[in-house]
Amino acid sequence: MTQKCAHKGCEKTFTDPEEECHYHPGAPIFHEGQKGWQCCKTRVLTFDEFLIIPPCSVGKHSVDAPTLAPVQTSGPGSQGQKHTEVAPPPEISLDGTEVYGQQQRKALPKVTAAAPGTPPLEKKEKPLEQDDPGVPVPPGAKCKRLGCEVAYDGESREDEDEKCVFHPRAPIFHEGSKGYSCCKRRVLEFDQFLKIPGCATNRHLFVGAPKSDEEELVSCRNDFYQTYTDVIVSIFAKKVDKTRAEVQFSERQLDVDLPMPDNKRYKVSFPLYGAIDPAGCEYKVLTTKIELKLKKVDGLSWPTLRSDEVSGEIIQIGKPATA
What we know:
Strand content: 25-35%
Helix content: under 10%
CATH class of the largest domain: Mainly Beta
Distance between the termini: 52 Å
CATH topology of the largest domain: Immunoglobulin-like
Structural class: mainly beta
Low-confidence stretches: 74-87, 102-106, 319-323
């Protein structure tokens, strides 16, 4: 009887249970743009490269191999966490704020609110890239939009205004879940991620707009976590020029200037929620991100990174108490 092997990396059909099986015994790992398997060291950046990583173990086929959840690479319980400091039990101040460390009796710094009548900054959406009507499209060219794999068949494009169904924003991989930032659906399996239907419609993008010599200011996703001594910020910018990257730390402000390939640049300045010690701060440029370590001047928790985005939430540092 023909059966399908359940081992990851194999998944072949077989009739002989003694047949040799090449597979990955560990769980898949998706972390900050890199992809691989827990059982071997190979790490790649694209999905196609991930799918062809050679299996690292040899055994027998199995139809009931356990389904392995993707490895948690951040958050409570993760094994990859480099910062292991755990804060002592916090004190609760009169205004309900949790305070940590030796500065427990120091008042929470006041955040200066924007002046009345000041309009909020509007986030400008980047115009959707379109093909130049005067540029010919070679037959068989695939659409460049995420989630659309349509190939150009050589016919007229005059009536294709809403034929492309795609995802206008970037994919998200976070602690095992996968999806796109433009829609709410999240899945666990990689195969399911590839099948998430697009959430927007427009014209196909077979060629793309011609490259401009002008520098383009782009936005990059950022995230942070904290201990009771530091705030660690990740700015997800790929292939940053290390020789020209500039980061300036001030007591209450962060200035970042990151030049990237194709005349792109990420440049931002914003006020920080709490005070930092500029002399104790540092940063490093990695392949897929920039990591900044901000040294707190006290043991206070930061509910947000920016002082102009205060949410009113209280963030606990360290492990939650258990009964």
